[in-house]
Amino acid sequence: MSYLTPEQVMAAQKANVETLFGLTHKAFEGVEKLVELNLQAAKLVMTEAADTTRAALGVKDAQELMALQQALMQPAAEKAVAYSRNVYEIATTTNEEFVRVAETQFADLQKSFTSAVDSMVKNAPAGSETAVGFVKSAMAAANNAIESAQKVAKQAADVADANFQAVAGSVVKVAAAQQPKARARRAA
């Protein structure tokens, strides 16, 4: 039966530490992108608030104020959707990197485990064929279950992405649909 040597243990620990630092770096990159996005959004909101306040102070009647309000609705909805898409993209990209690393680590672990089981099977005493068959069957079932779970998780992520895109598109369409209604009310 084969055992891990101290060199193998140290190499595995070193690889795990490198993976941890790599993931930590990716997480901080995601946070940096979010902070940058939020700073840009805050600057834009402040600038637009000043412009909107100036425009509101320059209106002469209620109808002009309503027109100003309506003119701001669709661009505001579009900006909110764009901001949400950016946040979603940053989160998705960061998550994909974590998933990729986890899948790679799991594949390596699975290879090591399979190798260890194969080694044990080769050195198994006579008469243990039933137990060996059971272990191999259990490994195959576990691998199938893991592959199925990964497929389901991918499908769920795809559905969530499609739903997000649909909702984002609906928000912009609703805001756009409100503008002609407001113009019709002003004209009447």
Provide a descriptive summary of the structure in words:
With 188 residues, the chain is mostly helical. It has one domain. The chain has three helices and no strands. It has helices at residues 6-57, 62-122, 129-187. Helix 1 (6-57) runs antiparallel to helix 2 and helix 2 (62-122) runs antiparallel to helix 3. The radius of gyration is 29 Å and the shape is elongated.
Q: Regarding quaternary structure, how should these chains be classified?
A: single chain
Overall pLDDT metric: 82
What is the β-strand count?
0
The biggest beta sheet is recorded as: none
Provide the helix percentage.
Answer: over 70%
- What would you call the structural class? mainly alpha
Distance between the termini: 90 Å
Task: Write down the overall geometry.
Answer: elongated
* Rg, Å, rounded: 29 Å
> Topology as H/E string?
HHH
% residues in beta strands:
under 5%
What is the count of DSSP helices, taking H or I runs of 4+ residues? Answer: 3
Number of domains: 1
Low-confidence spans: pLDDT under 50, at least 5 residues? none
What descriptors fit this protein?
elongated, 188 residues, 3 helices, mainly alpha, single chain
Please give a quick description of this structure:
The protein has helices spanning 6-57, 62-122, 129-187.
